[in-house]
Amino acid sequence: MTATLPARPTEHVAPPAAPAPKRKPRHTPRVRVQRTILTVTVVAIVLVQVYPLVWLLLTSFRTAADFAGGNPFALPSEWTLDNYARAFSTGNLGLNIVNSLIVTLGSSVLIVIAGMMAAYALQVLGFRFSGLVRGLFLLGIIVPVQIALVPLFIDYSQVGLLDTHLSMIIPLAAFALPMAVYLFSSFYEYIPREMYEAASLDGAGPYRIFGQITFPLSVNTIITVVLVNSIFIWNDFIFANTFVLSDGLKTIPLGLQNYIGAMGNTDWTATFAAVCVTVTPLLLVFLVLNKAMISGLESGATKG
């Protein structure tokens, strides 16, 4: 006889449990009040920042009689483009823009090259007393520009640099260099040392490491340095007013003085039109590159 094995009991597999529904976070009245206050504060800040630009743009399309005789904060009762025509015909606005571009681009290139080289030598290569040198650079942030006006004026007059573009480019780049060195040094500290060590083991020298590793990684920081300094360089008045003597080298801040007529009479609507023309390029560049600027500030301010 063959023995028959007892049949195995059927295993019942329990169906997988349904995932528990996610609970929505409960916002307490205190959290709602804080969010409301934060929202109102942000909206108020935005309005305070944007309203002058909107008012400036609207006023640039008003007639001179409407601006002088009506409410200066009202909407234009009559729209005109004559203000922009007078802005270019009354003053040398086109030439002023060209001069500002030359000074801004020249200073920005000098700031980036000198700042990157100094930060690379201080932070990556390193040398004796590099910390002391970095501290001396940072001390330059607190030095006021006014103390250099008279010595620079005397030196420029002796070497023939007075009333030239270089007379503005050199001091503007020099006084912006400490902050540029700080930003680049902070970012280079963020780059892992293992990358430099691996490149050195592969036979790369300091110049090749800088060109193939450090420089490509510094694009956002470069954009940040250029944008931050370009705003101040574009609007610089003190150096241009001190070292520029001829009308052909006047930048935009100096050129706006051309709209002041006899006895202090000012063509305000043409002045507002000129300001709109000169502010628009900076706003467009800032809106396009603001994400890269924020990324550069974040990478230079944190480590790891």
TrEMBL record:
Domain of life where this protein originates:
Bacteria
Report the locations given in the UniProt record.
Cell membrane
Alphabetic keyword roster: Cell membrane, Membrane, Transmembrane, Transmembrane helix, Transport
Instruction: Give the transmembrane region(s).
Output: 36-58, 97-120, 132-154, 166-188, 209-234, 268-289
Q: Which GO terms describe its biological process?
A: transmembrane transport
Pfam families per UniProt: BPD_transp_1
The cellular component terms of Gene Ontology attached to this UniProt record, alphabetical and capped at eight, are:
plasma membrane
Q: How does it sit in the membrane?
A: Multi-pass membrane protein
**Which parts of the sequence are annotated with region: Disordered?**
1-29
The ABC transmembrane type-1 domain covers: 97-289
Q: Which PROSITE patterns match?
A: ABC_TM1 (PS50928)
Give the protein name, as stated in the record: Carbohydrate ABC transporter membrane protein 2 (CUT1 family)
**Annotated organism of origin:** Plantibacter flavus
